[in-house]
Amino acid sequence: MAQEVAFVTGAAQGIGEAIARRLATDGFAVAVADMNADKAREVADSIVQAGGRAVAVTLDVSNRLEVRAAVQKSANQLGDFNVIVNNAGLGPTTPIDSITPELFDKVYHVNVAGTIWGIQAAVEQFRDRHHGGKIINATSQAGVVGNPNLMLYSSTKFAIRGLTQVAARDLAPEGITANAYAPGIVKTPMMMDIAHQVGKNAGKDDAWGMSTFSDGIALGRLSEPSDVAKAVSFLAGHDSDYITGQTLIVDGGMQFQ
């Protein structure tokens, strides 16, 4: 069988990097896509050095033409296209009165439009190659229950759950599934920055800021990026072939559905 190909956005660090590395371990050829060209290249090179197959791709997910070109180029380089993981996103701390039109446009263009552009580009490749495929989108625990101080981030993540369900309905006849994963409080640079800003806004320290998000995790610890990557591995693999339109919550037991 030909090697399957996965395209992961925001793959230069954090959750995206963990996903790219896990899918490479699972046997996928991986396109490591990120705005940070140097770091994306480092991740791709290290996957290759470990015996995997990977290419680095530079793109801004908010730019529809860039996304389409990057997906097409990766598919041609790696010989197929089977899975897209729309992982890239922004998570600024946004108390209600701090939101400006410029910030709204920036966050929605990356988180929501970027996911839509990824879906469009992936579907084009699935159709051109006459087979189905898997669309996997990053939502969040904050897209299941609204989180304080995250008006923009939470609302974009709720939107991603909705567009994932629409894609699942629309694309099922073509053998294309669409699912989402919802991380909880993950030890990533973005999460640490959010905790810092929340603490700062309240006149408290970083630990206090993190506690506003991490209190109530049933398993009693913050998530590692690898915890999320394991869930995405399941959604990307064939054990999940009969699952579509779902959000897999990976939060250590913060929300029960």
In brief, what are we looking at here?
Its EC number is 1.1.1.304. InterPro entries: 23BDH (IPR014007), NAD(P)-bd_dom_sf (IPR036291), Sc_DH/Rdtase_CS (IPR020904), SDR_fam (IPR002347). The chain has 257 residues and is of the alpha/beta class.
Explained architecture:
It is an enzyme of class 1 (oxidoreductase). Pfam families: adh_short. It catalyses: (S)-acetoin + NAD(+) = diacetyl + NADH + H(+). Keywords: NAD, Oxidoreductase. Helix 4 packs parallel to helix 5. The model has no long low-confidence stretch (mean pLDDT about 95). Strands 3-2-1-4-5-6-7 form a 7-stranded parallel beta sheet, with helices on both faces. It has a single domain (about 5-190, about 225-250), classed as NAD(P)-binding Rossmann-like Domain (Rossmann fold, 3-Layer(aba) Sandwich). The N and C termini lie far apart (about 40 Å). The protein contains 8 helices and 7 strands. It is globular, with a radius of gyration of 17 Å. Helix 1 links the parallel strand 1 and strand 2 (about 30-35). The longest helix is centred in the middle third of the chain and has 28 residues, at about 100-130. The protein is an alpha/beta fold and about 260 residues long.
How many beta strands in the DSSP annotation?
A: 7
Spell the H/E element sequence. EHEHEHEHEHEHHHE
Query: What is the approximate shape?
Result: globular
Integer-rounded radius of gyration: 17 Å
* Low-pLDDT segments: none
**Percent of residues in β-strands:** 5-15%
Query: What is the number of independent domains?
Result: 1
Average predicted local confidence, pLDDT: 94
What would CATH call the architecture? 3-Layer(aba) Sandwich
Biggest β-sheet: strands ordered side by side in the sheet = 3-2-1-4-5-6-7
Measure the end-to-end span: 38 Å
CATH homologous superfamily name? NAD(P)-binding Rossmann-like Domain
**What profile does the largest beta sheet have?**
7 strands, parallel
The percentage helix is 40-55%
Structural class: alpha/beta
Q: How many alpha or pi helices?
A: 8
At the third CATH level, what is the topology name?
Answer: Rossmann fold
